[in-house]
TrEMBL record:
Superkingdom of source: Bacteria
Pfam family, one: SIP
UniProt cross-references to SUPFAM superfamilies, sorted A to Z: Riboflavin synthase domain-like
UniProt protein name: Siderophore-interacting protein
GO molecular function: oxidoreductase activity
Domain FAD-binding FR-type, residue spans: 19-131
Source species of the chain: Microbacterium oleivorans
PROSITE patterns, sorted: FAD_FR
InterPro entries, sorted: FAD-bd_FR_type (IPR017927), FNR_nucleotide-bd (IPR039261), Riboflavin_synthase-like_b-brl (IPR017938), SIP_FAD-bd (IPR013113), SIP_fam (IPR039374), SIP_rossman_dom (IPR007037)
């Protein structure tokens, strides 16, 4: 018997992007739940915006008032978010925010800033793209990962198989993901527990026998504490290839300035 490993059905590739800083304004907001909001940003600077990877990060800058000075904007408080949807010709960009309490700068802005408020958009500076077709998919995260999960799901063809697992507070806060019929979408409810704990427990409960078939693309992103459980599942129990999975903390409890690894 040959010991040569057959070629994988897909690979992850890094692609650089030109780092561009753009000025935009808040044009609309849509609440999906009481703690999750989608905003639309508009502006001529957004013409030509691109994001090649579902897990891309861009940096949003929140100035104290209206300004056309890009240097002033660059000095403003900022946070990283995933682009959800955009039209590079029309000049608009949509971003989703998990809103819990009134701490920080980004979520309160998304929830309460008057329409017309100015925002700076930096990046993305590079993308991780999937070349080829995974045999199956496993996507897991909390609310902060839903934009990336939605973008990954949009890449799936109608014959895709796999599983999506999302941690939210309760049934009233579940967020829809449009996935093919062969991909199950389930939710872990944390209730009053610490963020990430319900997802970590759900990941630990998955057995070797529940591994999706073939070359699986694995993506796990939530509060930093979920990283160990994600790696235990994907790399240890399921034996997925380390270069075919992404496991990262999108945020860290108590650290507003935490940056997700790219």
């Amino acid at each position: 018997m040959s010991s040569v490993k057959s070629a994988s059905s897909f690979r992850l590739e890094r692609q650089p992007l030109d780092l561009t800083f753009r000025r935009a304004t808040l044009a609309a907001r849509t609440w999906e739940t009481s703690t999750y909001v989608r905003v639309r940003l508009e502006g001529d600077d957004l013409r030509g915006f691109t994001s090649l990877g579902s897990d891309d990060h861009m940096r949003l800058f929140f100035p104290a008032g209206d300004t056309d000075d890009l240097e002033v904007m660059r000095q403003s408080p900022s946070r990283e978010y995933t682009p959800l949807a955009w039209d590079a010709d029309a000049g608009w960009l949509e971003v989703e925010f998990a809103v819990h309490g009134d701490d920080g700068v980004a979520a309160p802005w998304a929830a309460t800033a008057p329409l017309g408020s100015v925002i700076g958009v930096g990046g993305p500076r590079g993308s991780m793209v999937i070349a080829g077709r995974p045999d199956s998919w496993f996507l897991a995260g909390d609310e902060t990962a839903v934009p990336a999960i939605r973008r990954f799901a949009a890449l799936m063809d109608e014959d895709a198989t796999g599983r999506v697992l999302i941690e939210v507070t309760d049934a009233a806060h579940e967020l829809a993901v449009a996935a093919p019929t062969g991909v199950t979408v389930a939710f872990a409810h944390r209730g009053d527990a610490l963020p990430g704990t319900a997802l970590a427990a759900a990941l630990d409960d998955l057995s070797e026998g529940e591994r999706p078939a073939g070359d699986v693309f694995g993506f796990v992103a939530a509060e930093q504490g979920v990283v160990k459980a994600g790696r235990r599942l994907l790399l240890e129990r399921w034996g997925a290839a380390s270069d075919q999975v992404v496991v990262k903390g999108y945020w860290k409890a108590g650290e507003a300035e935490y940056h997700a690894p790219h």
